Each structure stands twice: as C-alpha cells, then as structure tokens.
C-alpha cells in the first residue's frame, strides 16, 4: 500500500465532516462554493481508490476498503458532487428571491441554507464512512448516523408533508436499525465461539473464520440483518417510509437518499451475506433475499401503475431497483453479482438524474401532481430530454448502463439454472417499465392546451441559475452511456473483484 | 449436576432483573400518562444498568462497570430529562392514546412476549455470562416495545417505545456479547444520544406544526 492511497481514505473520512462544520459559520455563497469544491475532491478521491484496491486492501486504523467497499463509495462520490453543483442552482433561485425580500425572509433563507449545507455534507460524510468502516459494529454505527442526519434533512422544508415523512422515516428506520443492532450482536455471539470473547467484528478475521462459526446464530443474524438494514434499503414490507421521505425531502436530498443511501444500506446486507454464505451455504441466504426481492419488485411494479405524484413515482422505482438487486444477489452466479454491482452504480446515476430533473420540473410547474404537468419537453428544452432519457435508462433501455446490468443479472440467473426466478424478474421488470413509462408519457410528451401558458411563472431551466441544475444530469447521462457502452477496464476489473468476493471465487 | 438443575444465586438474580425489565415494559404499555411512561423508561434503564453491574461483579468483566455508569447517566438521567423538558414546553396533552384498549394491548403483548420467550429458547443459544432465560426475556422486551410503538398514537410513546427497544437490545448484548469492546458499546450509546436529539427535534417540529403530540393526523402521505 502506498502512502498516497491512505490519504484518499482520510480525505473521504474527514473532508466532508470538516466542510459540514465550516458550513455552520460560513455565509450562503461561501458554503455553496466550499461544498462544491469538497464534493468534487471527494469524487476524485473515490475514483482514485479504484486502481488502488485492485492490488489489494487499503486500510488505516478503523478505515478499510476493498473492491466491494469502493463499488459502494462511487455512488456517494458521484451524487455528492452532482447534488452540490445542483444545489447552486436549486438554492440560488431562493437566494435571489430572498435578497429582494425583507430582513425576516432573508434571515429565514440563511437559516435554511445553513441547515441544508451542514446537513448535506454530514449526510455525505456518514455515507462515505459506512463502506469504509472496518467491521460490522462500526458499519452499524455509520448507518445509524446516516439515518439521523437524513431524517433532519427530510424535515427541512418544514411543510406538513415533510414533518409527517420525517417522523415516519426516523421512527421506522430507527426501529429497523434496532433490529440491525440485534443482528450485529448475534453475529458477535457467533464470532465469539471461535475468536474468543473480546474482538471487534472486523471483516477479515470474520470471513476467515466464517467456516467454523455456529450455523444457527449466523442464520439468525443474516435474517435480522436483511430485515433491519432492509428497512433502510426499502425492501417490502419494510419500505413504508421510503416513498414519503423521497417525495417530501428537498430534491438534492431525494437524489442522495435514493441513489446513495439505499445502496449503502444494501452494502451492509452484502457484508452479512459474505459471511453467511460461507457458514451456512449458498441456499439459505439466497432464498431469503429472493423472497424479499420478489416482494419488493411486485409491490413496486403495482404501485407504479397508479401513481399520480412525480417524486413518489421515482421513489417506487427505487424500491423496484432494490428488489432487482436483491434478486440478482440471490442468483449467486458471478455474472449476476457483476450485474448487481454495475446496477448499483448505474441506478445511482440514473435515479440521481431523474430526481434532479424532477426537481426542476416541480419548480417549474409548482406541483408534483402528474395530472397537472404537461409539455415538459417543450417547456424545458434541456431538462425535458435529459429527464426522458433518464427515465428510459431506469426502464433498462439500451444503450444505458441499467440495460447492461439487468441483462447480466438475468443472464447470470439463467446460467445458474434459476430459470423460474429469472422469468419472474423479467415479467415484473416489464410491469414496472409499463408503470413508469405509462405515467410519464403524457406529462412529458403531450403539449399543453393553449391558454394555460400565462398562469404559471416561467422558472424553467431558462432561469438565471438553470445551468447549474442542467449540468449534473448531463454528466450523469454521460456516465450512464459509458457504463452501458464501454465501462473502463479498471472499473470492470473492480466489479469483477467485488463480485468474486461475494461469490467466493477469487478472480 | 446440581449446577445444571438448580440455578445459582447469580443466575437467579440476573433472571429476576430481566423479568423486572419486562414487567416495566408492560407497565409502559399500560400507563396512560406520558410523563409516567417516561419515568418508567428511566427506571427501566436504571434496572438494565444494575444488570450490567451484576454481570460485571459476578463474571469479573470490569469494563461493564464503566458501561453501566455511562448507560445510567445517559439513559436513566439525560434522555428522560430531555424528553420531560420537551413535554413541559408542549404541555397541551399529557395523556397518550392507544389504537386498542389497554386490556387488549396487554393481551397482544402477552402473546407476543410468550412467542419470543419460547422461540428464542428453541434457538439453542447459550452464553457463558448469563442464563439463556435472560436472553428470551430480553427478546420479549424488544417485541413488546414494538407492540408499544405500533399501538400508541402519539409521538412521545412512540419515541419512548424506540428507546426501550434499545434497552432490550442492550440486555441482549449483555447476555450474548458481554465481551464486546467498550469502545463499541460507548459508540452505540452516543449514537442513541444523537438519535434522541433528532427524535426531540422532530417531536418539537411536529408539535409546532400540529399543536398536538398525536400522530393520528399523520395520514396525508399514502399510496
């Protein structure tokens, strides 16, 4: 390990936290600039870790990353940078508005801005820390921190809906993590049978001793982990907080919640999977994940069919994609696992994009109701096409990354002789495809009837700071195309390495 | 053989304490007054801390003294004080409301607790530190806490339910993971403190918006 790669870890673990502290005192403009710079630096650091972990594990103290961790650092890195750039425009309009208003409103805006930037930096920090934590106990702590920080961010808009969503979120997710803590403790008990009473649940010794662990406690720990952390992943039936929180949070937060937080929580399940499949064999953990995956996909697909709220629609699509990921892991074949990891990355880019574009649309039309939105393509010449392309990407259309990943998952499933679940997966994904596209065709493609033009203020992407809100989704499109057409060699190698970790074959 | 059939004084003490914690959970479910509920939570935390002291002295795990002191300070003093202070500011209602009548709630809780008690004993998890009965009782506490959270329709009861769920989890960790490094236990506790603060902030926001502690109106978001 070179000293320089260790520094990358420290950058990710320290810089966003420092930025959050700095935002406590900085005025709006300075906070924006600092957050953008830190976001870009963290993205660079996360990308810089990709070649570093190809040679082996990188670790300092409590921080440790291997191929699997880096796969889950990338979505946070990308979305943190993207949303911080997006936030320049998102809050910029309000800043301009507040500058013209009276003192009370200005003070209100500055309070909002300060809380927003402190929160979003702290949120990103906690999501960087989770995959870097060396050990199941530290992982739990990091994920609990993501919950409390993001609950406050969900409540930030201080509307009736936001208050309700935040309360549901914090209560349900905390109870879920209570179960996650039970999983951690039961796994500790299992490990204590071979590693002695006092140890710290670090990954490497746990995986090394996994063969000798007692089977029943490991089974119990795995199921508790799937239920506990699955609450935060949004697996059905523990998903009830998810559409509310995603729909009511400020848009940049929705993007982070959906693309990054769900992935980080799934990472925790994968860590338990890694141990459980060695101890109790492949069949049991895969069956558990298959059940939750199919339930999520089915419910999300059906909910997408009759959804009238733009952001809730995207939230249910997140549940659908997490279901796909869970089913993909349940196939267990290296190809399917490769698809799962690629899916996590591509979903982060596509869903981040979709939420950011949806944020612009909601701003422009002043409503989230799909029934009242017409003619997006016409009205928002930049955001409209990017939104449409992101939605097509979410429907796993070629040439985007999600097509490649879902193809790999299904092919892996059929290759592993899981024909029936693979067929179910294809059918349910088609159902979700119909729901998502069916709901969005009219708002996006149809033109507005004449005469409605005047009553809605034109704050589209032609607004003063609109460019800041268009740039990140455009970059996201490029990422999706690259992932779909020709992933860089180092990334493919990283994904293969991580899939090898999960399937037990060293590649 | 004798040690097998006749529980030692240590085992008996530990089991008694675990039963007391479970009974306190039932009392929380029963109590209609929110203030009483918070006080019961403080007492429950105190009892869990006492269990930690008992384990520390009986099994010679000195770290647990520190843990007991910390969990007493945090869970039996600071957290209840924070919630009570919050309620003093929001003194509109002091009685909570359940989805079912108290008697039915208790019946449900008894069934759930019995389920936990018997299933956990089937799992065959033995600990060197505490008798397996204590484990079953702690899992029962966790499940009854869930009943409390689900049945009650006000933010204070739901929050207290979550905190007492955490008490149950701490008891599980005393039984099966007493050797867990102190640093992790302390980190868990501070995480709890952060969660309490966030719960408090959201309770305040909720009260500021609806002027009530009830969650019965939180039905806007659905579908």
Offer a concise description of the structure.
The complex is a heterodimer of chains A (507) and B (223). Helix content of chain A is 79%, strand content 1%. Chain A has 507 residues and is mainly alpha-helical.
Secondary-structure topology with pairs:
The complex is a heterodimer of chains A (507) and B (223).
Chain A: H1 3-25, H2 28-54, E1 58-60, E2 63-65, H3 67-100, H4 103-132, H5 136-154, H6 160-195, H7 203-208, H8 215-233, H9 241-248, H10 251-280, H11 283-305, H12 310-331, H13 334-365, H14 376-379, H15 383-394, H16 401-415, H17 419-445, H18 466-485, H19 489-503
Antiparallel strand pairs in A: 1-2
Helix pairs in contact in A: 1-2, 1-4, 2-3, 2-4, 2-19, 3-4, 3-10, 3-13, 3-18, 3-19, 4-5, 4-10, 5-6, 5-10, 6-8, 6-9, 8-10, 8-11, 9-10, 9-12, 10-11, 10-13, 11-12, 11-17, 12-13, 12-16, 12-17, 13-15, 13-16, 13-18, 13-19, 15-17, 15-18, 16-17, 16-18
Chain B: H1 2-5, H2 9-30, H3 34-59, H4 63-89, H5 102-122, H6 132-151, H7 155-176, H8 182-210
Helix pairs in contact in B: 2-3, 2-6, 2-7, 3-4, 3-7, 4-8, 5-6, 6-7, 7-8
If you had to describe this structure to a student in words, what would you say it looks like?
The complex is a heterodimer of chains A (507) and B (223). Chain A has 507 residues and is mostly helical. Chain A is built from 19 helices and 2 strands. Chain A has helices at residues 3-25, 28-54, 67-100, 103-132, 136-154, 160-195, 203-208, 215-233, 241-248, 251-280, 283-305, 310-331, 334-365, 376-379, 383-394, 401-415, 419-445, 466-485, 489-503, and strands spanning 58-60, 63-65. With 223 residues, chain B is mainly alpha-helical. Chain B has helices at residues 2-5, 9-30, 34-59, 63-89, 102-122, 132-151, 155-176, 182-210.
């Amino acid at each position: 390990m070179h000293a320089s790669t260790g520094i990358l870890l420290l950058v990710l673990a320290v810089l966003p936290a420092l930025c959050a502290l700095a935002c406590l005192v900085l005025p709006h403009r300075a906070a924006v600039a600092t957050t953008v710079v830190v976001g870009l630096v963290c993205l660079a650091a996360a990308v810089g870790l990709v070649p570093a972990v190809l040679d082996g594990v990188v670790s300092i103290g409590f921080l440790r990353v291997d191929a699997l961790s880096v796969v889950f650092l990338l979505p946070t890195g990308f979305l943190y940078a993207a949303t911080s750039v997006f936030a320049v425009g998102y809050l910029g309009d309000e800043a301009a508005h507040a500058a013209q208003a009276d003192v009370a409103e200005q003070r209100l805006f500055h309070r909002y801005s300060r809380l927003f930037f402190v929160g979003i930096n702290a949120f990103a920090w906690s999501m960087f820390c989770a995959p870097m934590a060396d050990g199941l106990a530290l992982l739990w702590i990091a994920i609990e921190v993501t919950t409390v920080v993001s609950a406050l961010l969900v409540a930030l808009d201080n509307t009736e809906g936001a208050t309700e969503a935040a309360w549901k979120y914090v209560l349900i997710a905390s109870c879920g993590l209570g179960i996650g803590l039970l999983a951690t403790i039961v796994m500790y008990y299992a490990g204590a049978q071979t590693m002695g009473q006092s140890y710290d649940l670090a990954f490497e010794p746990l995986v090394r001793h996994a063969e000798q662990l007692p089977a029943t406690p490991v089974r119990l720990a795995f199921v508790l982990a799937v239920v506990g952390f699955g609450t935060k992943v949004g697996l059905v039936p523990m998903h009830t907080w998810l559409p509310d929180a995603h729909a009511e949070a400020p848009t940049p937060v929705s993007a982070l919640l959906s693309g990054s937080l769900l992935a980080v929580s799934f990472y925790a399940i994968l860590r338990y999977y890694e141990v459980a499949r060695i101890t109790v064999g492949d069949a049991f953990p895969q069956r558990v994940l298959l059940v939750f995956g199919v339930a999520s996909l089915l419910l999300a697909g059906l909910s997408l069919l009759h959804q009238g709220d733009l952001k809730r629609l995207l939230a249910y699509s997140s549940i659908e994609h997490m279901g796909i990921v869970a089913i993909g892991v349940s196939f267990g074949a290296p190809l399917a696992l490769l698809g799962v990891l690629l899916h996590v990355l591509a979903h982060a880019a596509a869903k981040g994009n979709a939420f950011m574009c949806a944020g612009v649309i909601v701003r422009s039309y002043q409503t989230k109701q799909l029934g009242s939105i017409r003619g997006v393509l016409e009205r928002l010449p930049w955001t409209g096409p990017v939104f449409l392309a992101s939605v097509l990407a979410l429907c796993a259309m070629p040439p985007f990354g999600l097509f490649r990943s879902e193809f790999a998952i299904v092919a892996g499933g059929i290759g592993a002789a899981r024909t029936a679940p693979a067929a179910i997966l294809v059918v349910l994904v088609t159902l979700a495809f119909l729901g998502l596209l069916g709901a969005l065709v009219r708002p996006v493609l149809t033109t507005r009837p004449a005469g409605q033009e005047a009553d809605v203020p034109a704050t589209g992407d032609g607004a003063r700071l609109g460019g800041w809100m268009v740039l990140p989704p455009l970059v996201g499109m490029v990422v999706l195309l690259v992932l779909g057409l020709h992933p860089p060699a180092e990334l493919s190698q990283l994904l293969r390495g991580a899939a090898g970790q999960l399937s037990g074959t060293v590649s | 053989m004798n040690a097998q059939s006749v529980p030692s004084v240590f085992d008996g003490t530990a089991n008694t304490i675990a039963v007391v914690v479970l009974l306190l959970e039932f009392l929380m479910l029963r109590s209609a007054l929110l203030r009483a509920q918070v006080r019961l939570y403080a007492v429950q935390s105190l009892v869990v801390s006492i269990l930690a002291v008992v384990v520390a002295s009986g099994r010679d795990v000195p770290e647990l003294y520190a843990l007991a002191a910390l969990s007493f300070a945090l869970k039996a003093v600071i957290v209840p004080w924070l919630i009570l202070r919050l309620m003093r500011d929001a003194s509109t209602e002091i009685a909570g409301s359940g989805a079912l009548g108290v008697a039915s709630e208790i019946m449900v809780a008894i069934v759930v607790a019995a389920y936990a008690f018997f299933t956990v004993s089937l799992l065959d998890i033995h600990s060197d530190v505490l008798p397996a009965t204590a484990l079953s009782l702690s899992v029962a506490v966790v499940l009854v806490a869930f009943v409390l959270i689900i049945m009650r329709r006000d933010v204070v009861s739901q929050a207290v339910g979550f905190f007492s769920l955490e008490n149950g989890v701490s008891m599980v960790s005393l039984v099966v993971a007493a050797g867990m490094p102190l640093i992790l236990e302390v980190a868990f506790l501070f995480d709890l403190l952060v969660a309490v603060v966030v719960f408090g902030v959201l309770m305040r926001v909720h009260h500021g918006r609806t002027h009530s502690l009830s969650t019965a109106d939180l039905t806007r978001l659905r579908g």
